# Entry
Amino acid sequence: LKERSFRFILEKEDVMKRNLALCAVILGISAMQTTASADPVRGVVELFTSQSCSSCPPADKVFGEVILRGDVLGLAYHVDYWNYLDWKDTFSSAQSTKRQYDYAKSFHSSQVYTPQMIVNGKDVVAAGTPGDVFKVMDKASGSTLNVPVVAKIENDRLIVNAGKGSGEANLVLVVFESRETVEIERGENRGKLFEYRNAVTEVRTIGMWKGEDLSVELPKKEYLVEKGYGCAVILQRVTDEGTPGEIIGAALVSGLGV
# Structure
């Protein structure tokens, strides 16, 4: 009986050891995932889209898959120039349309269209698949953001720090609705249900960067976002015409707690 009890104790210890080892592996994986999610933003993808555009749903889906990569900041700008097609895009704004027209001026183009994806403020990509976007982002022509930007909430204040670099750029605050499912009741996409990611609701310049370390603090009333919304900061050059140029730094705001 004593021998059986001793064997039982040993077997129980072995099970406990295996469980502890398994927990260690799980914790290790969780730590790796946490680290990965905290990796710096290495690319900014801006999608110009519309719920009234029959060609946009595939691009909206690709955009969502690109965001899942984890190190890409995706910003969806819903334009308002398709709203006459019997359906008003629930996220559309004149500000989003103006941003796309400003990009057209930057690219010396005479037209705008949807869907359109722009990577890091300088490369236009036809988003057939997520791989198409990543290929553009990985080009040697400079897809890596080279100015470090950190943005976080501390004591109800938004603190943004941009590191050193060369030239000048605008420090831009972008607020977006993280995820929402919308049923399209009329228009070209009538009767369909789509999930939309990172639909931009506000874009605002909060500082000027001139190649030196820059720190900006905003009180809660200046950055307030509601539950279900996200917030990001991008560092973007301005062209000689005053239109958006290359994005050289970006960060998701951490610690929102919403």
Observations:
- The chain is about 30% helix and 35% strand.
- The radius of gyration is 23 Å.
- The CA atoms of residues 22 and 28 lie 10 Å apart.
- The mean pLDDT is 84.
